Amino acid sequence: MRLLIVGTLEGYITAAGKIAMKRGAKVSHTDSIEGALTALRAAAGADLVMIDVKLDIATFIDSLKSERITIPVVACGIGTDAAAAVRAIRAGAKEYLPLPPNAELIAAVLEAVAEESHSIVCSDPAMLATLRLAEQVAPSDASVMITGESGTGKELMARFIHRKSRRANEPFVAVNCAAIPENLLESELFGHEKGAFTGAVARRLGKFEEANNGTLLLDELSEMHPRLQAKLLRAIQEKEIDRIGSSQPVKVNVRLIATSNRNLEAEVRAGNFREDLYFRLNVFSVAIPSLRERPADIPMIAEHFLKKYAEANGLGDKRLTEDAMLMLQSHHWRGNVRELENTMHRAVLLSRGEEVGPEAIMLTSKMLAPEGSAQASIPTDSPVANPFAGPGGTVPAAAPAQPAGPLVVPPQGGLPNGYGSTGYGPPKGGKPGPYGMPANGGAAAAAAAASANTSSAAGLAALIGRTVADVERDLILETLTHCLGNRTHAANILGISIRTLRNKLKQYGDEGRSVPAPGNDERATA
Hints:
Blueprint: E1 2-6, H1 13-22, E2 26-30, H2 33-41, E3 48-52, H3 57-66, E4 73-78, H4 82-91, E5 95-99, H5 103-114, E6 120-122, H6 125-137, E7 144-147, H7 154-163, E8 172-176, H8 182-190, H9 207-210, E9 215-219, H10 226-238, E10 240-241, E11 250-251, E12 255-260, H11 264-269, H12 275-281, E13 284-287, H13 297-312, E14 319-320, H14 322-330, H15 336-350, E15 355-356, E16 407-409, H16 442-463, H17 468-482, H18 487-494, H19 498-510
Parallel strand pairs: 1-2, 1-3, 3-4, 4-5, 7-12, 7-13, 8-9, 9-12, 14-15
Antiparallel strand pairs: 6-16, 10-11
Helix pairs in contact: 13-15, 17-18, 18-19
């Protein structure tokens, strides 16, 4: 992680920097806000800024927003000045860190603010085979196209490939092509010169230069405008880019990884994506199976997020009951791992006591379920009411697979040695997880099926008399509320493009409807 410290911090700069470096951070320092902005515009950049509370934090954060530089900021000050801390937080700082520096506190801030873990948790043979394929191609410099449904973990796979490559010690830079407005994406990718357009107050290096000698991830590439696709193709072919407003090309050396949740071959046939660019990027293809295609991963991923969010909310250890696990294993998981993560986050907050039962599992309604899949809804005794589904449980589509022992691929990369006879597969001597269900589903499955019949009838009755437009509007707004305003996550769960979602929300706002505000991580681009 790259840490930028701004200000003198009255002599504590050296101590804070040393603590951060011991925790694995690369530390740089500047005395002024202008120096910090200059550093952040350059290719070196930073992942986190620690700034002296005596500096004008509000002006600094406003400058970051105006130049579309999204980075967490932590304010630092001597002692525990409550007034200074409040001013810093109101100005937009994520945290306030009192000085002299405490090693454990700095470590906690670095871990909590900078980035969440990029571990891959899996044991299903389908996912293990995909990891093996990715590890084989990682050492090369070939471009990789990662495909899969929304929420399957395409960015995690891209990071895994980067960590296993020869560029592992160089930058990994990700660009979400769907989240950045079309007229700004070119500047984000290729950079610009001072005065190139309104708001270009200084030269800024783009993501290509920031990722030089490392890996550049183009996330949701299918959303890129055809005009920009042509410029991207030239950058790949010539290994050079042109900043906006500059006449001098800049040589770059990056390994490209692209992701898409669409069928790009179909997009090429439809004329929405350039065929030559597709073949340039699709040197090697890695297809991530959906969560429905790797059912053995559901129990361990659920337990992983259960532990994560219980700790994050200070709620102590929690465990899933067998009935709750049956609900999870029977669900269609249209939103894949992302939907499962959100479900477990809600379950942690809704559960009472150490056990997480069916009453705390709030699943998406049957309206989002693919045709022929299991249907799910909120149980009768859930403390949250869903207007789009009646009470009841879920219908098991089939007996869930017996889960093997979990494989956790740590952020530093690499699969564990001796993992199965070929380096993959279940660990030798591993035992099935506690939630394997018998082939006939048992009494719990029968009870769930009977409950779901009632749910289906009640759900249909609740929809009679309503127009499709009304149901669609309520579904979109409710999903956005569950995603805490995050437009990208909501679009992925709903199975629509981010542009379609934004157009719908603008329409609802014009109609006087209350639309949830964008999530914190999207306010810079919403």
